[in-house]
Every structure is written in structure tokens, then in C-alpha cells.
Amino acid sequence: MYYISFALLYLVSLLPLKVLYKISDFIYIIIYYIIGYRKEVVFSNLSLAFPEKTVADRKAIAKRFYHNFTDNWIEVIKMISISEKAILKRISTDFTVFEDIHKQDRSCQMLMGHLFNWEWCNAGVPTGVPFKTLVAYSPITSKILDRLFLYIRQRFGCIMLPNNDMRRSMIPHRHRKYLLALVADQNPPNPAKSYWLNFMGVPTSFLQGPEKGARMGNIPVVFLPVIKVRRGYYEIKGILLDNDPGSSKEGEVTRKYVTALEEIIRKYPELYLWSHKRWKHAWKEEYRKLWIGN
Known about the structure:
Blueprint: H1 2-13, H2 17-35, H3 39-49, H4 55-78, H5 84-88, E1 91-94, H6 96-103, E2 108-112, H7 121-124, E3 132-137, H8 143-154, E4 159-162, H9 166-170, E5 178-183, E6 195-199, E7 202-206, H10 209-217, E8 221-223, E9 226-230, E10 233-237, E11 239-242, H11 252-267
Parallel strand pairs: 1-10, 2-5, 2-8, 3-4, 3-5
Antiparallel strand pairs: 6-7, 8-11, 9-10
Helix pairs in contact: 2-4, 3-4
């Protein structure tokens, strides 16, 4: 079944992006106007994040989000066959910060958010940074989809590490300089073992793992936002969050990450993945000891 699915998607991926974007436009109409895919979640998230905006403003953001959402997955399919040269023409990069860290003979931790199109960063980063690029990922329940995404994400040089077995997966790489990429706005499985702070004005839980790993190894932390310049073209630029996390107070790295992520979302709200339940865990007073916000 995997090979049949792969073959069909490969054939689709051979279509020019102009044609694929026409397909994306059609899918947008279906999922927004007909199916209403996760519209309740999207509008609930937007209401929490932008209470100051009018209903009409939030609706406009939602429509732009759904356009980017369908484009994102069409572009993922295109990654099955697109050449490295072709995709790099569509990604403008500034990796100065990574080069500076590499000159210090240190590894690096890169924090990302669910900004469209984070998947294309799997092509732009490993071909442009002086590190071996390791990417933590969540295995997909469907074995077919999991295998397909591993193929897509590793085509351009990334080494994928399952986040449910990170300690063992890191062993072969611990004695070499590496860049560890983490999408750090995942919902923590246990809110009682998370950091809590305001995100978009709402008390929100964040994973502790990225910060604790950086502080333990005193590994510089870089934020990598993805900016959609226009359809099919992106900019990614590394922004140093903390060059000496081992000396930072607990929670400082996470605060800097959340501040940087929120700044990008407020500037480009249509680029964030509003269809996932960002505020799945409600704040409880018993989490007070986990609060790291100002």
C-alpha cells in the first residue's frame, strides 16, 4: 500500500507548482466553505489570541490561514520530487548566526514554531548551515504516512529523530557538532510538568525539554521564523535567543522563544497553524510553581 500511495503522490508532485496551486485553491473552497474543517477550533483560537479584533477581521485572518494551510500541504507533496536546486531558489536564507556558533566549535539548538511552511525548512536548513542537521519529530500513527513523511523530510539531508526516544537517538551524534531542530510550540502531554506563561495573552503550557537540554549542555539557542514572502517563496533567518543558556535563570530561554514567536504571529497571523488546539490545557492554580512569565 505504501508504494501505491507513494507512486500516486509522486505523479501528482510532478505537476508544475502553478497547477498545484490551482488544486490548492479548489481544496480551499471545499475545506472552508463546504466541509468547514476545524473552523470551530480556528475561530476559537483567533478569538482568544486577538480579542481586540472585530469578527470581520478574525474572519479575514481565518480565510488567509486556510489558503496557506492548503498551500502548505500541496507544497509538501511537491517535496516528493522537486530538486534541491529548484526549492532553494524559493527560499531566501540568512544563516549568519549559525556560522558564528559553528566558529565557536559548539553545537546549536534551533527552535521553530508552526509557521507556514515549516516543512520547506527541511530543505533550506541542512543545505545552508555548517552543521549536521538533526530534527526531532513526532511519529505518525499511520505507518504509511509516517514512512512517507520520513522520506520527504530526509530528502535534503535532515536526520530525523523520534521525540519519544530522543535520548537513545542522540547517542550517535553526541560527540560531533550538530544543529538540533525542535518545533517547540507542541502541546505538552502533561501540563503539570510544563512551563507556564502568557502566550498571545493567554496562560499557556510549553514543553520544558528544549530549555532543559540547552541549559544542561550550555548549547546556544536560535529561533528560526518562517516568513512567506509571496506564494511559493519564503524567507528564513536565524535569530540568536541565548548564547549562554547554562548561565540563564530557569524559564529565560522559553520566555525569549515565546516572545519571539508571538511577535511573528502578531505581524503575520495568517502564517500560524490555528487549526490545532494551542490552548488544550486550561490554567489551574496548582500550576503556580511552574509559572515562568513576568
